[in-house]
Amino acid sequence: MTHSPPVCSYEGSDYQTSFWEQGGRSYEDQAEAVALRRLLPKGGRLLLELGAGAGRNTPRYSGYQRVVVLDYSRTQLEQAVQRLGQAERYVYVAADVYRLPFVDGLFDGATMIRVLHHMADAPLALRQVCRVLQPGAIFILEYANKQNFKAVMRYLFRRQSWSPFTLEPYEFTALNFDFHPRAVRKWLAESGFTLERQLTVSHFRLGLLKRLLPTRLLVGMDSLASLTGGLWQLSPSVFTRSRAVGSSTTAEAGAFFCCPACRHAPLDERAQSLACLSCGKEYPIKDGIYDFRGISYD
Ligand SMILES: [Zn+2]
User: 1, 83, 97, 181: which sits with the fewest CB atoms below 10 Å from its CB?
Assistant: First the structure.
């Protein structure tokens, strides 16, 4: 295990406040809520929320008995704890998506919203997700679409040099990637997923429209437009629902964490940490947050 892509961390960021609460993003937030309602199964046992941030979407997963709220940033998780509380139904985990600290086949559902966007090695992340899912588990993935209407227009009118039609990711700023829908579909298939449904979202992400029209009207228009998501994808955001068919195991009852460095399970439960009895690494538990980040892999 030497491959270790760089991670985009929101440590210390006021992203929740500046982007979502004061950034005029209620249209995007509500359009996402509509998409999630359409794609989520009615109920489930254990959901993995990857890149949960401050827990903006977490209350929308109320159909699941338990939710693992995972993010790389501890400060984002501290905000999530404040928002959601230390209820039995939430498990807070700080970890790297490329090295998930869970046994194979643990979850019957996973979501990854506005996260692939930051993945320098998206296929590697998707393979990790498939590993921790049970056969037949649901995976809801959102990604930023490089082939969006605005980019297509700008390219056709020679206002931008990069092509929205080619398959490689477009890194518009460090560790921020837009992806081509066909590339994402290919990675999903290669990682063991069968794609079931696609919804295009946030068609009307334009400052002028958001100022002129009521949010409720924009969300309603978006909700209709998103239904053609299986036919073409020209919106800046695309939601997909897939099923894990490539995973082969269902975790045994009681199994949960494994060592992200050496994959050994179970970990030894101590007062304020989990310890790996195979490689000797120790992972702190502080203020209700399991922290699997502070490890080197050499
Ligand atoms: Zn270990």
Answer: 1
CA of 250 to the centre of ligand 1 (A): 21
Amino acid sitting at position 191: S
Distance 136 CA to ligand 1 centre (A): 28
d(CA 205, CA 218): 9
Distance 24 CA to ligand 1 centre (A): 44
Question: Structure pTM?
Answer: 0.91
Query: Predicted confidence band at 287 (pLDDT cuts at 50, 70, 90)?
Result: very high
Residues measured by CB to lie within 5 Å of ligand 1, the ion: 259, 261-262, 264, 276, 278-279
Residue 77 buriedness (CB in 10 A; 0-12 / 13-18 / 19+): buried
User: What distance in Å separates the CA atoms of residue 115 and residue 175, rounded to the nearest whole number?
Assistant: 11
Distance from Cα 275 to the centre of ligand 1, integer Å = 8
Distance CA 244, CA 117 (A): 21
Check residue 205 and give its pLDDT.
Answer: 79
Structure tokens at 107: 């979850």
- Cβ burial, residue 224 (10 Å; 0-12/13-18/19+): exposed
Of 201, 193, 198, 247, residue with least CA distance to 222: 201
| Beta-strand relationship, 44-50 and 64-71 | parallel
Does residue 298 surpass a pLDDT of 60? no
Token representation of residue 278? 């195979």
Contacts of 208 (CB under 8 A, 6+ apart): none
User: What is the phi/psi pair of residue 283, to 5°?
Assistant: -120, 115
Residue type, 17: T
Inter-residue contact 240 to 232 (CB < 8 Å): no
Q: How far is the CA of 87 from the centre of ligand 1 (A)?
A: 29
Closest CA to 187 of 126, 246, 243, 128: 126
CB 166 within 8 A of CB 180: yes
